[in-house]
Design brief:
Elements lengths: L1 E4 L11 H11 L7 H10 L7 H7 L11 H18 L6 E5 L7 H10 L8 E5 L21 H11 L4 H11 L7 H12 L10 H11 L2 H13 L2 E3 H10 L5 H13 L10 E3 L3 H9 L3 H14 L6 H11 L1 H4 L7
Parallel strand pairs: 1-2, 2-3
Antiparallel strand pairs: 4-5
Length: about 325
């Protein structure tokens, strides 16, 4: 069994969001968790009764720890979360993959540390991915993925161009512009060449993305901008509301543009009911291109439509980044 946990998509980093998301997946919990559902799911998973108070604290539910000191509640929450995650592998081998942990909050990192000290009855492998240079706090073996060498680049080109020798002969000279690229830079370069576009003078990820973004129709670029405000992943329902409020297309017209962005690998379908950027760097790049007024306006729309979230910190982030435009509609931020 493989369980993948990711950072909160908007970048607001609410406390323990990645851990709650992972435990929802382990216990098959709905988005809105109740005490009854938590108890039922925990019982089916074979969790000990002692874990329930800490899990109730994790999901903000009333429980035996509600009146305890903060330090006690935090400790029990961290231990219960770690026990629940490793318990998912009771009857099979388990891989826990935590992605983009440089975006995790401090409390979520504490839970990752606690995983190392949990007793298990079956093999559990924990893999974390990070862009941080210093991972000593994990006290674990690290493997650094370095840049790709010339032979790797040409091997990737040969694989992509299998059976198309003419295309390969066109690709290889262009790819020589890349100086020890990352896997993302090579992927973007190959896609751009496949779209019949020569690589820009700056073949870095940002250089390629900038040229690809300039080629998009204005409507599709506006859709990407709206999606970038919602996060690296977003509910399609929220994106449709955002685009409509932004004066963009609706209905079948919007469907056509979403299909185009899917085919171009900008914003493909994710989990059911979701759209996602193919890489966090794409979302960050699009978001950075927004001018301040445009950014405020889109965050204001996100705040007004009540973008689907289980954490008020995300809603507060949209309101604060909207500036006066968003805060004018709210008397307070909880």
């Amino acid at each position: 069994q493989v369980l993948r946990a990711q950072a909160e998509p908007s970048g607001a980093a609410p406390p323990l969001w990645p851990i709650r998301d992972a435990i929802r997946r382990v216990l098959s919990l709905p988005q809105e968790v109740t005490t009854r559902e938590l108890g039922r799911a925990s019982n089916l998973a074979g969790l000990s009764f002692e874990a329930l108070p800490g899990l109730a604290e994790l999901f903000g539910l009333d429980g035996p720890l509600s009146n305890a000191e903060f330090a006690v509640r935090r400790r029990e929450c961290f231990v219960a979360a770690a026990q629940t995650l490793v318990n998912a592998g009771r009857s099979a081998k388990l891989v826990l993959a935590f992605d983009d942990i440089e975006q995790y909050d401090t409390s979520s990192r504490r839970v990752l540390q606690a995983l190392r000290h949990q007793p298990v009855n079956s093999p559990v492998v924990v893999v974390v991915c990070s862009q941080e240079f210093d991972l000593d706090w994990l006290e674990a073996e690290t493997v650094e993925l370095g840049p790709m060498e010339r032979a790797d680049v040409e091997a990737a080109a040969r694989y992509v161009c299998t059976g198309e020798d003419g295309r390969l002969s066109d690709f290889v000279p262009q790819l020589r512009k890349l100086e020890q690229p990352s896997a993302l830079e090579l992927e973007l370069a190959l896609r751009m060449l496949a779209e019949d576009g020569p690589l820009p003078d700056d073949p870095s990820a940002d250089g390629i993305l900038g040229q690809r973004l300039e080629r998009l129709p204005d409507i599709e670029r506006a859709i990407l901008e709206a999606a970038s405000v919602l996060g690296v992943r977003c509910a399609e329902r929220d994106l449709r509301k955002m685009v409509a409020r932004d004066g963009g297309p609706e209905g079948d017209d919007l469907d056509d543009h979403l299909v185009a962005l899917h085919v171009a690998d900008w914003l493909p379908l994710g989990e059911p009911g979701q759209r996602r950027f193919t890489h966090a760097h794409l979302r960050q790049f699009v978001y950075r291109t927004l001018d301040p007024d445009r950014m405020c306006a889109l965050h204001s729309i996100a705040a007004r439509i009540g973008a689907k979230t289980d954490d008020p910190i995300v809603s507060a982030m949209h309101l604060l980044r909207a500036g006066g435009d968003g805060l004018a509609d709210r008397k307070s931020v909880v």
